[in-house]
Automatic annotation (TrEMBL):
This is Protein sidekick-2. Pfam families: fn3, Ig_3. It comes from Geodia barretti (Barrett's horny sponge). InterPro entries: FN3_dom, FN3_sf, Ig-like_dom, Ig-like_dom_sf, Ig-like_fold, Striated_Muscle_Regulatory. Residues 1-84 form the Ig-like domain. The lineage of its organism: Eukaryota, Metazoa, Porifera, Demospongiae, Heteroscleromorpha. SUPFAM superfamilies: Fibronectin type III, Immunoglobulin.
Length: 302
């Protein structure tokens, strides 16, 4: 091996027979940097077919390099791995195809990426561009770009719990991936905007929460003056749902109601408490009429 990468494991050999034609699979592992050059040789002769390189651990930049050989190809096989940084320190070069971008770390306000390179030229630079993707496709902001000679970059100053498109371009080839900074529970507290009460139920409407990868809402309620509001919860699924009905209530009773937005990180802050009273049970009366001579009509309660 050469450069910054190193071979961390020996060569393994697997042999099985398919009829009379043996098939061999050789593999070696490299760590510590992007494998820009992988070369297999058999008795000093370069093998160009049946090779494959796969990233197996982005954190340690661990790659496994395999060689599949069919036929009676006895000999001494060698795996050579290098990152081939040029003398000027530039590791970013033209790509033989779209760059493979790998997310290796993130926080609430940063995204850390690496990408693969080839060794076709020594002097080209990479362009890294990013933009925040809002709830709507046209709602895009927090746009930035840099040029670098390296094969990794940490984008900082991003918004918490937000989705970004990251594009890497080099040698006329580009690729784009999407990633989300570490998500927090929703910060906005939806407030109840409208209520409708019956004897045993209350229907409420609330404000739509801002875009924070909302997955639903949590409605908590309880009889006013008791501690049941902390334990009685109605979970609503759907980012655009703004209405719910609370059933099986007690008639002529005051209830305290609050709403919070929910995402994959948890339940956010509950909004202002709204007090709603269920109505008394309706009483339906019927009447009969009786004609009293010389007095006209008199309506009597039935």
């Amino acid at each position: 091996y050469t450069g910054d990468v190193s071979i961390s494991g020996g060569v393994t050999l697997t042999v099985h027979f398919d009829g009379f034609s043996p098939q061999f699979t050789l593999s070696c592992i490299s760590t510590g940097g992007p494998a820009t050059t992988v070369m297999w040789t058999r008795d000093s002769t370069t093998v160009t077919h049946g090779t494959e390189t796969v990233l197996v651990n982005a954190t340690t930049a661990e790659y496994i390099h395999t060689l599949n050989v069919t036929g009676r190809m006895e000999g001494r096989y060698t795996c050579t791995v290098a990152n081939n940084k040029p003398s000027n320190g530039s590791a970013c070069r033209d790509f033989p195809g779209q760059p493979i971008i790998v997310l290796v770390g993130k926080s609430t306000n940063s995204l850390n990426f690496t990408w693969n390179v080839s060794n076709t030229t020594d002097d080209s630079t990479c362009t890294v561009e990013w933009e925040k993707i809002g709830c709507l496709a046209e709602n895009r902001d927090n746009i930035g770009s840099i040029t670098t000679n390296d094969t990794s970059y940490s984008i900082t100053g991003l918004e918490e719990g937000s989705r970004y498109n990251i594009t890497v371009t080099a040698g006329g080839q580009s690729n784009t991936v999407s990633a989300v900074t570490t998500l927090k529970a929703p910060s906005a507290a939806p407030n109840v905007t409208q209520t409708l009460a019956t004897s045993y139920s209350i229907t409420i409407n609330w404000e739509l929460a801002p875009c924070e990868d909302i997955t639903g809402y949590s409605v908590r309620y309880g009889e006013m003056g008791t501690n049941t509001i902390d334990t009685t919860v109605l979970n609503i699924t759907g980012a655009s749902v703004t209405k719910a009905t609370i059933s099986n209530l007690t008639l002529s009773t005051n209830y305290t109601i609050q709403v919070a937005a929910v995402n994959r990180a948890g339940t956010g802050v509950f909004g202002n408490a709204t007090i709603v009273m269920t109505v008394e049970k309706s009483v339906h009366l019927t009447f009969r009429q009786k004609i009293i001579p010389d007095c006209g009509y008199v309506i009597l309660d039935d």
